[in-house]
């Protein structure tokens, strides 16, 4: 990781907090190819395929419990040539956690227009004009309207704890619950530079996930899937709009609709909705996996004007094809709800420093009565936020070489 001078304030704080210990050895990080996945050769899988494989293993465990059938027998009908059942279940759970909660993206790109300009409400639907007013209140509450100049870049560090709670498998009248609350702790470093450039390094349970964007291409690297680019329009990282960058959050909801009011805990909130249009979700489809919709809801407190809850729902349909051996078209719905709080002043802006995300992955078919539901959660906190980091340039957001090579091969 490149170390950049962030000024005397942050450096002094870091030196005061450092404690060196030579007795304890550090756990090595897994950054390169996963040794358990070497048999796959050069095959690339998309993230939804890995989620599907995880559910298949859980179903095999349930079948072996009910019918005394070994897991290996159920794997003989696997659509993959991988040896996934030899991988410890704890590591499989961690891969699912990182795949779903590690670095999800928002459903739509940011709006580049000046969102704090004067609003002309003539001929604008009441749902849209109400949303504009709520966003103006949010910008005022976070201190964005007071700033004469916008921050050019941002640096943030934080801690996470991810927990895979349980899986519920239902077949008609029978419902089985599997798994325990196994969790892993970790940390992350996030860099952002306008417009649309960001870089995230997340380490949990000895596994390192890296993702980023140069403003044109969003990419991600995991030890088990390698490096791949996200399809469709360039979209922001969800962690950034979870209270870390109020202006990016406001930009995301610039064309939102106000759905009304809803109570979240003890707070009455306005509910804003944005959704990816049909053309955008079609661009993100890949092979038999077709993205149906991706919707984001923001809950803004009526009393404080701050964003206190964020929820998005992503639905994918996997069509039946001879290659994947599906007997039914399968739907995958991923829902992530994030509570956002502990707002603190950082250089005149209110930045959220704590939160909790709960994700649910729901699998169901068009014909079959069987369905599966897995619940997982992440508790996160922010340790440090610095704006206008000296020396940070566009060179720090260049995608990996294989992403650039693939783009050059695809270009005419």
UniProtKB/TrEMBL annotation:
<feature type="region of interest" description="Disordered">
    <location>
        <begin position="1"/>
        <end position="20"/>
    </location>
</feature>
<dbReference type="InterPro" id="IPR006873">
    <property type="entry name" value="DUF620"/>
</dbReference>
<feature type="compositionally biased region" description="Polar residues">
    <location>
        <begin position="1"/>
        <end position="11"/>
    </location>
</feature>
<dbReference type="Pfam" id="PF04788">
    <property type="entry name" value="DUF620"/>
</dbReference>
<protein>
    <recommendedName>
        <fullName>C-type mannose receptor 2</fullName>
    </recommendedName>
</protein>
